[in-house]
Write a structure and sequence with these properties.
Length: 144
């Protein structure tokens, strides 16, 4: 699964996330990278909606992880913006979350790429030409 999407509004970014959620299964890890305001949290909001989360979805910048219950899957929403090393992730039990059988959605994943599972979906968000345009590049990563 390697592809590129272009959205033109927050609602389109949320809608793209909702559509993407149809590809998600238990133990899926999605690593999202991109500058502030690039659309990562909006996309995750759409993924969570698609998976049946009814509670408010917000970036866990200060708590590092938020947990949501979807229709059939538990969703772990991480924000690594304030993480400075892989050791910090070990302290919060990151590997246990990955092995828990839910879905891991990770903002700022590029900050600790060395600790991410070998099998995951990498997503890169960037600003487009217009104020609300976002470019989303999706690459599936598999173990060699």
């Amino acid at each position: 699964m390697n592809r590129q999407l272009t959205t033109h509004s927050e609602l389109e970014t949320i809608s793209a996330g909702k559509e993407f959620s149809e590809l998600i299964r238990s133990r899926t890890v999605v690593a999202l990278s991109g500058d502030l305001g690039a659309g990562k949290t909006r996309f995750i909001k759409g993924v969570c909606e698609g998976l049946g989360v009814t509670e408010h979805v917000a970036s866990p910048t200060f708590t590092i992880v938020n947990e949501y219950q979807g229709r059939s899957l538990k969703i772990f929403h991480f924000d690594f913006y304030r993480i400075n090393s892989a050791a910090e992730l070990q302290e919060i039990g990151f590997e246990e979350y990955v092995q828990a059988g839910g879905v891991c959605l990770i903002e700022w994943a590029n900050r600790v790429k060395e600790i991410l599972p070998d099998q995951r979906i990498d997503m890169t968000f960037s600003l487009g030409k217009d104020e609300n345009e976002r470019i989303i590049i999706i690459n599936e990563v598999k173990p060699e």
